[in-house]
Amino acid sequence: EKVRKSDKPDFKANVTFQLAYVYSYLGALDEAYYPKAAELFQAYAEGWPDDPLAPEALYQLAQSRRKAKQETAALAAYEKLVRDYPDHDLAPFGMFEIAGVHSVGFEGPDDRLELRHEARGRSGFARGAIAAAEWIRGRAGTFTLDEMLAETWS
What we know:
- With 154 residues, this protein is mainly alpha-helical.
- It is built from 8 helices and 2 strands; from the N terminus they run H-H-H-H-H-H-E-E-H-H.
- The chain has helices at 2-5, 9-27, 34-47, 54-67, 71-84, 91-97, 123-136, 145-152, and strands at residues 101-107, 112-118.
- The longest helix has 19 residues, at 9-27.
- The protein is flat, with a radius of gyration of 21 Å.
């Protein structure tokens, strides 16, 4: 109650963030705690979006939502992390968790060239893994994707 009524935003932010982590750690023991962790991480991310810990709060929010089996909410948190904090160290981890947004770019003094791939789900990855398993069956050794594609696409 003292935290809720506090007129010190730094104190309230710190307590909110720390409590979120406490509930997250408790979630490792009992999954019933993950929704509370997510609630607190979300409160932090929304209440202090300019704070240096806001991207971490979003990442932990997504992790907590995923562990609470709330996939849509987890994906939304990962997307917000990548969209709002693209230069943060956790953004690439968020991109990895999104159903497959990958990009490679080349930057010069006057322009930037970017090639982007966006999967609409994980089923394409699953089909690729099955195709690779079928192709490699009965073979010995180490192979590259180029070898598999050269043989299957020719």
